Each structure stands twice: as C-alpha cells, then as structure tokens.
Amino acid sequence: MSRSALPLFDGFIETPFERRFQGLLRQAWHRRSWHVIVAEPGSGKTMGICDLRDEASRQAGTIGGRRYPVLAVTAPKNDAKEAALGNLLLVALGLGGRGHWSERKYLLYELLIQYGVECLVVDDAHDLSMPHLIFLKELTDQLVLAFPAQLPLGLCLVTAGRGASIPLKDVFDQPETMWLQFRRRLDRLHPYCRIASHTEGEVRHILLALEQIYRPSFPELNLQQWTGSMYTWLTHPLLDPQKSGRVLMDPLMQLVTTALEWSYADGEKNVSPKHLEAAAEQLTVRRDVIHLIDVPGQNDADGGKSREVLQQTTEPSPK
User: Fold this and answer.
1) Does residue 305 register a pLDDT over 80?
2) What is the pLDDT averaged over residues 124-129?
3) What whole-number distance in Å separates Cα of residue 100 and Cα of residue 283?
4) Pick the CATH number of 16-194 from 3.30.360.10, 1.10.390.10, 3.40.50.300, 3.20.20.140
5) 61 CB-contact burial (10 Å; exposed 0-12 / middle 13-18 / buried 19+)
6) Which uninterrupted H or E stretch holds 34?
7) Alpha-carbon distance 265 to 146, whole Å?
8) What is the average pLDDT across 149-170?
9) CA distance 238 to 1
10) Phi, psi (5° rounding) for residue 233?
C-alpha cells in the first residue's frame, strides 16, 4: 500500500518580511496615512494583507454588526472603469453586485461608514487604471465632506516590482492638478516604501518555524542545518536577478515542501539531502524542463528517448 501524501501547511507564517510589511499596513490603518508599497513578486504580500484584514475584523468584534476596519481588494484586471473597482469594494463588504453602478456608487459611501472601514488596501495596485485612481480620490474626498466627524480613510496601494522602479510614481509625478492633490495626500515621511525580503539569518528563523510545523510528520526534522545551502540556492541568479542577496518566501516554501514531500514518500524521518538538492535544481537549472506526458510504455517503444526536453536558451540571431 502506497503511503498517503504529506499534509502540507498552507497557513500564515509571521516571517520577518511579514512583520515589516504588516507594520507599515498597521501604521496606515492607525494613523490613516497613505502609502505606495512595493515588494517583489512571491514575497508574501497577499498573505500578509489577508491576515491583517482578518485580525482587524476579529478585534472589532460583531457587537452592533459586522465591521471591516481594514477593507482589502485586488485591483481589477482588464477593466479600467471605476465601476469595476467599486463593485469589488461592495463585494468585500459582503454585498452582491446587482443594480446600476450609478446608484450603488453613492450607497458605497454610506456603507463604508456603516461597516466601520478605517483603511483601504488595494493589492496588485500596479494594475490600477487612471479612472480607478481618480475614483479612489473622489471616494475619500466625499467621505471627508459627507462625514466630517469621521477621520479620513487610510490607503495602501500595494504593488509588485523589482529593482529600483516604484510602480505608480510616474503617475503621481505628473504635473496635472489631480496628481498634485493625490501626491499631497501621501504620507509626508514614507510616501513610497519598498519592503525588503529575507536575509540569511532570517531564513534560519523561518526554517525553525517550519520544523515545528512539520515535526509530527518528521520526528527528526532538522532544516536549520541547511540554512547556508538553501540561502545559496535561493539567491541563484535565476531567482535573484537583481543580486539583492535576499530570499523570497515563495521559492523558499517551494524548495522546502518539495523536498519534504519526496522525503515523506520515501518514509524518511528527516529531510533527505538528495531531495533538497534535487528540489533546488528543479527551481533553478531545471525550471524550464518540459515533461512529456504520454501513453505508459511509449518511452520504451521510442527506443528509450528521454521523457524530458530541456528548453534551450540561445542568443538572438542578428538581423
């Protein structure tokens, strides 16, 4: 009988990156400040947003009705109209998407106050269109005028980016009055923030947390001893093209869980070194391998040809 699959952990881990990221989100929430936040793809932004949103709702309680102190949405894709963003805000409040936007738009203002919204967080904000950004400014301005007793909303535009570029900055740097006003609302000390990923020492702390999580399946699990090797693998030029020397959470989790799954299938009590190395190769030098899925036994009929075809990268031919 084959062994059952390893139960994988898919919950939230409070990593050093998440503490830095959520710290800024909390600052925006409590101080009602505006920020453009950028971090690399795969760093754990969405997980951090969801965890803080849920924590804020739990703290608010349900006495007097459901409250959403931190309201989070993902920027609409391939729909530049303001209604696309507005409807996502209504859905995040637990309301349906029926009715004309021209009527629902003005209802949204009242609902944000009714549900106790104090901070808006827009994930993938690099996908926001000009109408979306204009709508956010109009929405926050109207709330200040219609409900003067309420504090202004905090706003975090969370973007994905690499290198020195800051998404949306080129938009807010334009000379039109609209963008001058938008830029003036950004926090005076930290308007644009880049959240750094993990150092080698921080990777060690994450591996310690993963040891505790997977201890029931691996009684002798010791991941920390592989900190140096994992750091080297995960700062490979294919995973760290900017040569930042920082490790992203997504490839770290892929490396560890893949090696653990293979080790678990072999009945190991600790992670296998050969599986760790194979998982690292899978993330780097073998990440472009194309696997042939064919009729069983067809490989033998073809004279033992490999089931894998490595995608070759060649220099572009001069024209």
Assistant:
1) no
2) 96
3) 47
4) 3.40.50.300
5) exposed
6) strand 34-39
7) 61
8) 91
9) 39
10) -65, -40
